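Example record

One chain of 106 residues, shown exactly as stored in the release files.
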Amino acid sequence: GVYVGKTKKYKVTVIVILFGTTIAFGSLVGLLFTKIFALVLIAVMLLGISVLPGLATFLEFGCEIAYPVGEASTSGMMLGLSQIFTMGSIAVSGIVLDNADKETVG
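Predicted structure tokens for this chain:
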């Protein structure tokens, strides 16, 4: 973003974004139990507001770390690995949730 472009303070920016994302995700999880749709919607919006600026910052920081390698290669590798990690997380979450349902029912 503009701040990182001027100051080159990637580490501080990443820490602030991750802190904000953690708080937003925690509030989303807590508000899901209330089953109040408007509050859940606000928490999802806050999570989106905190996550989306992070994507560009994380990609730029990764390109700076892997400097001799081109930006396209670095960004492609990071986004590809994130897709693989996401598929694995979804599979593991499905297994955990299926087992949790069986334990609570039986």
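Notes: The chain has a mean pLDDT of 81.
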